[in-house]
Design a protein that fits this description.
This protein has 13 helices and 15 strands. By secondary structure, it is of the alpha/beta class.
């Protein structure tokens, strides 16, 4: 079985190491705050952070990754615009566009994406996210309750697929109403992008089972992840469809296990104690089931980086070092490959990997880890 590997593009900026936030590559921090320096925006030669993302995409293409996830947060550039730039910087690299249905009309989204497919030879992918609620959701002007957001996502994808077929397509839903719509040729002849669908609640699994080609999850304890994959596959089977599963996970891979954990230790020892306290208290503010599931695996007592090792080679403190999801894989090249193989055995068909700094680590992971993973194409 061939396994697809994608990389992640840090469109929110990134530090040059897990150990320090400065010097910073980018114009804003992931989350709150601003870099003390001006990142790449003040270079006299005009080289920008978007150019840096192009270098990462080219490195991923060279190193054996099929494509890359372009995240979408309040503190990122816009994935749709970035993908148009990256298309000219690469030849085979596929652009996984993260977006929230509800912030874009589905007919407009169909036209935009079909045009991107036509211009790039069919290199677009979707990462459909429905939002974690709370203050971050209100930033977008969205106050729709959790389960209704997934109803809206399902309707959005119903319309997106419907108009893509050329029409006339009509739809009368709670959130969307369309009459006699449809993409005109040649747009309607373009390949519909594969959907990587994120979400851990029952409402999310129901929507994913109807529309997704890949159900995408953050890394969780392995038995817990197997149970979630089984649930979404059972729901999909009832609809007469098949779905694949994918895992989004950060890694720290080094020649030896000792070197990998030394990187974690150095980063942990430089942390603000207040950041550790916030992680221990599991402060949220949203209604994300996925974030709650990750937080439930963390210990209440955190005195050392070792306290956050929740399974062999799985560390639950990644959000302390760079924001985002909590769990990741740490170890030698061989150990990281073995853990990825373990995930394949429990049902993963694809991965979105990341490591900081993304440019250098693209080459490291692509050249040292991917060839060791069984089933890597």
């Amino acid at each position: 079985m061939a396994i697809d590997f994608h990389w992640r593009l840090p469109s929110h900026g990134e530090p040059s190491t897990h150990r320090n936030r400065e010097p910073y590559r980018g114009d804003w921090f992931f989350g709150n705050g601003q870099p003390g320096s001006h990142g790449l925006s003040s270079r006299a030669d005009g080289f920008s952070y978007i150019d840096y993302l192009g270098e990462i995409a080219r490195a991923a293409e060279i190193s054996g990754f099929q494509g890359g996830l372009i995240p979408s947060f309040p503190s990122t550039d816009e994935p749709w615009a970035i993908s148009a730039f990256l298309a000219q910087q690469t030849r085979t690299f596929r652009f996984m566009l993260a977006f929230q249905p509800g912030f874009l009309n589905p007919v407009t989204a169909a036209r935009m994406t079909a045009t991107l497919q036509r211009a790039t030879g069919g290199r677009a992918l979707f990462n459909v996210i429905t939002g974690g609620g709370g203050p971050s959701q209100l930033w977008w002007g969205d106050s729709v309750p959790h389960d209704d957001r997934y109803t809206r996502t399902t309707e959005f994808l119903d319309v997106l697929r419907g108009v893509w077929q050329g029409g006339p397509f009509s739809y009368d839903g709670k959130f969307y109403q369309v009459q006699d719509a449809g993409l005109a040729e040649p747009l309607s002849r373009e390949e519909f992008p594969e959907i990587y669908f994120s979400g851990s609640s029952d409402a999310a699994l129901s929507s994913a089972s109807k529309h997704a080609e890949y159900y995408l999850s953050w890394l969780e304890p392995f038995d817990q992840l197997r149970e979630k994959f089984d649930r979404v596959k059972q729901r999909t089977d009832l609809l007469g469809r098949k779905i694949k599963c994918a895992v989004r996970v950060d890694v720290i891979a080094r020649a030896t296990e000792e070197e990998a954990w030394a990187e974690v230790r150095k980063g942990f020892e430089r942390l603000d104690p207040a950041a550790i306290a916030r992680l221990r208290e599991r402060r949220g503010g949203g209604d994300s089931v996925g974030a709650s599931r990750q937080g439930a695996a963390r210990p209440l007592t955190i005195n050392s980086y070792k306290d956050l090792i929740i399974e062999p080679n799985v560390w639950s403190g990644f959000s302390l070092l760079r924001g985002g999801q909590t769990n990741g894989i740490v170890g030698s090249y061989e150990q990281v490959a073995e853990r990825l193989d373990d995930l394949v055995q429990l049902g993963a068909d694809a991965f979105i990997l990341a490591s900081t700094p993304h440019l250098e680590e693209t080459y490291r992971v692509g050249e040292e880890v991917l060839p060791l993973v069984k089933g890597h194409r």
